Amino acid sequence: MSHPEETDHAAPIMTAHRAGLIGCRSCGRVWPESEIDCQRCGATLVAPDRRSLNAVWAWLLAGFIFYIPANMFPMLRTTTLGGIAGKTESTILGGVLELLHYGNWFVGGVVFFASIIVPIGKFIAIAWLARVAGRPATAHDAHWRLGLYEVVEFIGRWSMIDVFVVAILSALVQLGFVASIHPGPAAVCFALSVAFTMLSAQSFDPRLIWRGLPLRSRKD
Amino acid sequence: MQTEGTYDLTTGAGLVACPRCDALHVEHDLEPGETARCIRCNAVLASPRAGAFTRIIALSVTSLVLMVGAVFFPFLEISRMGFGNETSLFGVAMAFSHGALMPLTVALMATIIGLPVLRAILLVYTLLPLSRRRSPFSHAVGAFRLSETLRPWSMAEIFVIGTALALVKVGGLATISLGPAFWAFCGLIVVNGASNVFTSATTIWDAIEDGGASTDGRELSRNAAP
Ligand SMILES: [Zn+2]
């Protein structure tokens, strides 16, 4: 595929928006701006507009709100030797510290990364992308922002890993008197937080990153 | 009617817009194995592969067979001090079936089992007639769009990594043996990964639009003849 006026990389980049057209984000087809739905794939056509950021902010806020109880309530309830040897409740951070305390650096590190670093990094990254979206930027900035968005989009669902670990442990470690593990309410809050943040990232329109760029493309 | 390489800037016919940066491109036929990338942001626009539809169908059917094994065979077994417990995939999802955690059970079942199965069925439904150069079944458009929407919510591969982590976590405390369902699940991940390599959404949309013909043109565009 080639660009309409393409001769070399210094040629001006024509976008669907500048041409008064609207591109389908689901299948790539281009339609006149008056069209409402894509006639090929049925997706609703949305122009790259800052108004779409409202949905991003709303989902992001929901994800952040649920992330707070996810860290305050217990994720796991462990009972050993019928409660004689102890009955522990651990939060996300508590569970990580416990793993590190017992020298389980690998699992502790993965859970710390997936449940604390990634969610917080994602909140900051999406909030920043939504704030600067549609503001003038250089081509270099835009490439960097798109890269950041792709990382957020890719890594978001992997935060769900801790919920799966809790589910597997709860199903598996049911040894009656010896030991049993039950999930805590934080598991639901955390799963919802991850889901809402995924929806927030999906609502972000990466085409906004490129709005306001100078007409000349200077590709590196 | 549009011919190869021509475009119309008033109707958008013959053009492709990059979903990542909105840059316009003229639509061309691609040879199998070629990859079209956006000239501005380098996003993949289309990457047709030879025999892709037939392979995706075969891989989807394989994944359905593996899923049956993954659901009905034992998944993991744990034992310590004479106490033992065996769990299946349903058992894992049912871990949250107490009281307020019930909704999470439904969500887990969906992300681990339901959505991978549904996506495999939708892909077979969409591609079966296309692979034989026939016109697509009715609602193929909706079926394929649903399949693409559900893609990020199908989390089988995350579940397998989560299982591995859980095993490392309790490995020191008890003896754990992996059941056939665990290996079926690992196979499922490989099959789904291979299927994703062959999937080029743009190519499938073109095929649906053209009614299974191998051309890339806009002859059947409902918009071309107002
Ligand atoms: Zn479309």
UniProtKB/TrEMBL annotation, chain A:
InterPro entries the record matches: PqiA-like (IPR007498), PqiA-PqiB_transport (IPR051800)
GO cellular component: plasma membrane
Keywords associated with the record: Cell inner membrane, Cell membrane, Membrane, Transmembrane, Transmembrane helix
Pfam families linked: PqiA (PF04403)
Predominant localisation class: membrane
Transmembrane portions of the chain: 55-73, 105-133, 154-177, 183-201
Subcellular location: Cell inner membrane
Segment forming the signal sequence: none
PANTHER family the UniProt entry points to: INTERMEMBRANE TRANSPORT PROTEIN PQIA, INTERMEMBRANE TRANSPORT PROTEIN PQIB-RELATED
Stated name of the protein: Paraquat-inducible membrane protein A
Taxonomic lineage from the root: Bacteria, Pseudomonadati, Pseudomonadota, Alphaproteobacteria, Rhodobacterales
UniProtKB/TrEMBL annotation, chain B:
UniProt protein name: Paraquat-inducible protein A
Bilayer-crossing regions: 56-76, 107-128, 155-176, 182-205
Alphabetized UniProt keyword annotations: Membrane, Transmembrane, Transmembrane helix
Pfam families in UniProt: PqiA
Domain of life: Bacteria
InterPro entries per the UniProt record, alphabetical: PqiA-like
Native source organism of the sequence: Paracoccus aestuariivivens
Keyword Membrane belongs to the record: yes
